[in-house]
Amino acid sequence: MRASLIQVAVGEGESVEDRRERVAALVRGRSDSDLVVLPELWTTGAFAYELFDAEAESLRGATYDAMAKAAGDAGVWLHAGSIPERDADGSLYNTSLLFSPSGDLAATYRKIHRFGFDKGEAVLMGAGRELVTAALPETVIGLATCYDLRFPELFRGLVDAGAETLVLSAGWPERRRSHWTLLAQARAVENQSFVLACGTAGTHAGVPQAGHSIVVDPWGEVLGEAGREEEILTVDFEPGKVAETREVFPALKDRLLGLAAPER
What is the CATH code for 2-254? Predict the structure, then answer.
């Protein structure tokens, strides 16, 4: 299976509309991939808090239209990153969109863990409530967003729901890049799953971004890692390695704590 992580650069001087068109063209150029992944809040920037309300969209807004068409044109599964979504009641959410190769909406995920403590996203956006998985032809993916990476129970819940490949969209700051790499590898090892983590490049509202999108296998081996600038990281991986790893080293069967722990 081939995955392409498009590490979009977000910065001043490019309108949301222009960036949307540019990213759609990048997606259309990945027709040789099975799965394409975009970062978190790439239309506005994850730290551009003042733009969340101004650029918020309905679920089926301009980004939906552009990404659905791009996925269909390329014939790929597209995790279109996340958008600032405004629901019918006017509430904002950090919402990810997954499209099938025909351009149909296959899944949505509202970010559960919002970053900012008592400011920013944590107070401007509502929290999602549901774990989301989606069955692709070769693997079941589990969806997560940025700050979720720090909460292992979310990923264990996705694995309990059948996830084999954990796909994370992020806008992770450069000053905590070491955590990004460490946690991506930890989530892969502890869940014996692939982790595909796509971040942004550039600077969001004065906050330099870490970049370094990464693909990790179930043993924690890094199969590919981007640099800090805008880049497309393309990695071939074998989804069947998840079952092989869990059979050779069946650590998940020894769980004694947590939800859905198997009986021995």
Answer: 3.60.110.10
Domain ranges of the chain: 2-254
DSSP-derived 3-state class of residue 209: strand
Q: Are 231 and 211 in contact (CB under 8 A)?
A: yes
**Per-residue pLDDT reduced to its tens digit, 164-185:** 999 999 999 999 999 999 999 9
Q: What is the Cα–Cα distance from 124 to 232, expressed in whole angstroms?
A: 31
Instruction: Answer for the pair 86, 43: CB distance below 8 angstroms, yes or no.
Output: no
Residue spans of beta strands (DSSP E) within the chain:
2-7, 9-10, 35-37, 77-86, 92-99, 105-110, 133-135, 140-145, 165-169, 194-198, 201-204, 207-208, 214-216, 222-225, 231-236
Helices 177-191/152-160 angle, 10° precision: 30
Quote the pLDDT of residue 11: 86
Show which residues are catalytic.
Answer: 40, 111, 146
* Pairing mode of beta strands 77-86, 35-37: parallel
Q: What is the pTM of this model?
A: 0.96
Q: Decide if 216 contacts 193 (C-beta within 8 A).
A: no
